[in-house]
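call fold(seq) -> tokens
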Amino acid sequence: MTDRIKQVIAVRRDLNMRLGKAIAQGAHAAMMFMIRDIAEGKPQFQGVRFAEWLEQGTAKICVKANDEAHLMEIYEKARAAGLRAEIIRDAGRTEFNEPTLTAVAIGPDSAAKIDPVTGNLALL
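ret:
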């Protein structure tokens, strides 16, 4: 069986974001790896098993981060494991009065590599 490729998105739940805002923050995180690679001229998304992920249906799993400290812990644990991780800082123009860390996306990468980092987190 082919190794499952997925992306995990953690969203802070302590901010009491409207559902639409939380979805938007997760979407920003989910696509940030592509935006950065395109901006840096890496059209093949280096270091990411992107073609496999597309073929497998672009699996995304959404999980809860309790607060900013927990979000940073998830981010740092992913980076320490050698995973691609993108953290989102909302500009603070709508729901927040200041720039606020809201979400982090890990991967896409092998489920076997991501699960040790996020497998214990509650689903959103």
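The longest strand covers residues 100-110.
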